[in-house]
What does this fold into?
Amino acid sequence: MQLNGSKSIRGALATITAALLGSGAVSVADQGKLESSLLYYSESGRVRATEGIVNISKQLKGDRNIGVKLTLDGLTGATPNGAAPSSKVQTFTGASGSTQNVVPPGVIPLDGAFHDTRFAVDANLSQPWNRVTSSVFGVHFSAEHDYYSFGVNSGITRDFNRKNTTVGLSGSYSHDIVAPRGSAPVPFAFLPASTPPSEDGRESRGAHSTRPKEVFDVVFGVSQILDRKTIIRLNYSYNRTSGYLNDPYKILSVVNDQNSPDAGEPVNYVYENRPRAAGRQAFYGQVRRDLSGNTIDLSYRFFWDNWGITSHTVDVFYRWQLRGDRALQPHLRWYHQSQASFYHAFLVDGVAFPQYASADTRLARFSAVTAGLQYSLPITVGSRLNITAEYYTQVGDRSPPEAIGRLRQYDLFPRMNVLMFRLGFESGF
Amino acid sequence: MRIRKLFIAFIISTIAAFSLGGCASMGVNVWERDILAKPAMQLDANANDHALDDHIYFSKEASSGGRGFGGGGCGCN
It folds into this structure.
């Protein structure tokens, strides 16, 4: 390495110091670090969102480190409400009961335009216990107008093998409260706009306005330095969520059966009904390697749950180091999931309802691709600006084989296209 | 189903092999960590980018977790 001037020497000394003091592959902690990001997210014809994150960490006495992260995001727009298209105009009453959403024939119904703001704060304290063991403890709180979350998390890591191997175990618990607009609908209750509360005791809205949700997470991970230029990580994660797991704003169309002259046309709408518990597991593998000053990061995740969903995710970043400490980072992500066992694009009139049913396309079978590019440049000594643009597209089965009657004519899974722009700033202090 | 079980068994075996000392001969000495100490080589680099991505995918897909905790904290899914 050729050294030019005192700055290069200082940089080299800092690198060597970091290398000597670093734990495993982790560089020496900064005295203080500020990271902030601003995201603009836009789905074509649907949701738009803006999200800002400010993350501050500071080293304390005894090598302890405290971090605080503030998140604020705002959403506006509309999402599919789960109903199927129809040859007639469909009218839905908003969750508050005060708005009417009129959907033209032949298109996927979206719920009425909504606005939501979410605020979240996370704080954590990490503490080294000796040269090879450290722990972290954190708390979380978030609030939006129909959802609240209170959480705690903790983790411990231990280095082995001359700090080339790091084993970590962490867990979190979150108590969430769902407080739907209006109130939580009774599963499979008919929508009030289409049918009043029926004689069999179903009612359109529940008596309680809030529902609890409990979320447990455990992550076990191993990271391993393979050589001077390569580090890998393997994680296993388990999540158990129980309580109110329905989306209170999602419904299903109940359509005429295929022997009807109006086969596939809706006769009614019901609220969805999901199981009250989900167990989710994932294996995650990541390898990061230096390639002559550039960096490649390749990761793969295999996910499965007891709702019948399995998914594969492949993520690739390539950081191309340019002159003047600038960098260009292309990103490609591919995702594919199978559908939940209780996913139904619609229900059929006269056929007994299944135990659980949801027409939420997030539970359907689909593939997604993300392609993006990040440009990173230094602003001053110790601070950087990252500018990122990404495109995300989701493609599902537009005409599933179970579609009947007129539903065969319609696009039951319109392609979703998203543009994202991100601005990131990081600085030491 | 059988493929999934075989896959899981492979992953568990791999992790066990690492944990039980199969990796004892891997790695580098402390004076060989110049490249690994670079910010770009940290496994958790760009934490804010990952947090934003995880939030987006959590709200648009059925899968979560793997890199970190998998759920809670948002009514978007």
